[in-house]
Amino acid sequence: MQEEPQAPGPAHAGPGRTRQSLVYRAGVLGSRPTVPTDFAELERRAQAEMSPRAWAYVAGAAGEGTTARANRVAFERHRIVPRMLPGRVSRDLSVELLGRRLPAPVLLAPVGAAGLVRRDSDTAIGAAAAELGLPYILSNQGCSPMEDVAAAMASGPRWFQLYWSTDEPLVDSLLARAEASGAEAVVVTLDTTMLGWRPQDLNLGSLPFSQGIGIAQYTSDPRFQEIVAERVAAKAAGNGGSDDVKVTLGALRSLLSISREHPGDLRTNLRSPVPRAAVETFLDIYSNPGLTWDRLATLRDRTSLPFLVKGVLHPDDAARAVEIGASGIVVSNHGGRQVDGAIASLDALPAVRSAVGPDLPVVLDSGVRTGSDVVKALALGADAVAIGRPYVYGLALAGRDGVRDVLANIVAELDLTMACPASARWPSSVRSCWRRHRDGPAGSDHRPAGAAPAVGDESDLLVELDGDPAVMAHLTGRATPAEEAIEVWLPQRTDPAHDALGLGYWSAYEGDEFVGWLCLTPTADGEAELGYRLRQRAWGRGLASEGAARLVQHGFETVRLQRIWAETMAVNARSRAVLERIGLRHARTRCASGPTPCPAPSSARWS
Ligand SMILES: Cc1cc2nc3c(=O)[nH]c(=O)nc-3n(C[C@H](O)[C@H](O)[C@H](O)COP(=O)(O)O)c2cc1C
């Protein structure tokens, strides 16, 4: 019988092997995990446990669901190139975020109205997060007052997510409570100043908040209570509009739900106008569609906590957030729940990272389902990820333990995945480790140059490359002066619009050595121009053909381009040979007059 490889001692096991052992040992005794270890089965089983309304709210997405799907497609498109025999028994998954060291780069995203799934949802989620030492971002639309969740979490790390209300004193009150209850940061969600178009909920006529579910941060707030009291008084004085409600079974159910969710005794609540007034007040003021960057900037003077902005997808918005003093960015499309047809969060990440530089904390959420997804997000520039729906499904299946198991499974898989990319620490070493490969577009060094802070590091190398007259002989016929390279050419390499399409520039490395770059530049819809430039010492070894062939494959298979074309000078025999070798067909030769002493270029095209 063949022997299994020797298991390392428990001290070296790491979260991956520890979790596997736990599951397999229990399996020997005949039990199976309550929470499935893959997302598809987790989702399927959770749906069976949840009411149709809860399922619609949690799993639902905006419009036709294309953004939610794009999130997953983006993760699937990026592939890992594992490295072998790193010779390390354990890995350090810990990262430092906003001054606190976390055991793994994983947070629990803010999820409102989780009480639809289970009562006491937020305290259960908080306790599970604290058990794992992972930060829980408490939702402004939570189902327990933040003080209760804080008590359930003891010293576990927590942040508070804020929806900016139209009532400014309420904003101040929520900020003060967050600070007093031990939140370490505030996350302001920018993408939901209005609720997205969500057909799953709309088709059921179901909004949790109108049932009183998800408004506990408000009903427990002194400023909010004041506004509600004013509303009730105005109504009593006859100034608050008509109170006519048709008595139907649905209306009675809603009244019961609202009264049950409201703080205090159910019987008293059923007779009181306050719970209903609280729901109406919430719907009126919970979010401010008129919020501006200038208003957001007032946060700096209103809390001593660092603040992050959530829902950023465009690099200019990220830059703006930095300008107004944000301490971090959450790249997110709200799990595809707000704008249908939006860019996948993962696809937006590289450009955001480029815009904010290497040091600002960037968290990515939307579509993260596995440990392998976490590796990809970190390799593309995130410092950590936030998880949404998966832990809610764990909650549906097994309450607090279910939340813990879902997250522990993701961290376990992350640990095992990290064993292959051959990096003991991260995130920086994961990035550099991936940069060193020379064998595949996505997920390795052949990624768009804007994809990671490496671009900045490469400026000198790029200037040197363009400064070599031999390299430029068949391009401009002259060495490019350093200033021109820096001012004119380098900025063109980091066009976020190109990155977002899956096109742009890729750096090529051989071992640790930079050998040049390749690019696919969009020239029309479904069409891109192939280009490359290699250092002299990389010539004649098949590197251009190898890289260009992979890029062509990437362009057709991943980006789904219809046509890729390239142009080279007629006398550039080496390049013509490369283009022929990778399958481009010579289309035509044209004569061009220009300032350079070079012979006329020829162009080769292939569709
Ligand atoms: C049921 C549900 C409720 C949510 N509530 C909030 C919320 O109150 N505040 C917020 O900023 N984001 C909210 N989000 C968005 C999440 O914070 C996060 O961006 C998203 O779930 C990540 O995508 P994923 O579910 O694919 O992991 C909610 C998401 C879900 C699924």
From TrEMBL:
InterPro entries: Acyl_CoA_acyltransferase (IPR016181), Aldolase_TIM (IPR013785), FMN-dep_DH (IPR000262), FMN_HAD (IPR037396), FMN_hydac_DH_AS (IPR008259), GNAT_dom (IPR000182)
Pfam families registered for this protein in UniProt: Acetyltransf_3 (PF13302), FMN_dh (PF01070)
Any one Gene Ontology molecular-function term assigned to this protein's record: oxidoreductase activity
Gene3D superfamilies: 3.40.630.30, Aldolase class I
N-acetyltransferase domain residues: 460-607
Coiled-coil parts of chain: none
Matches recorded under PANTHER family: FMN-DEPENDENT ALPHA-HYDROXY ACID DEHYDROGENASE PB1A11.03, S -2-HYDROXY-ACID OXIDASE-RELATED
Protein name as catalogued: FMN-dependent dehydrogenase, includes L-lactate dehydrogenase and type II isopentenyl diphosphate isomerase
The organism of origin for this protein: Pedococcus dokdonensis
Lineage, opening ranks: Bacteria, Bacillati, Actinomycetota, Actinomycetes, Micrococcales
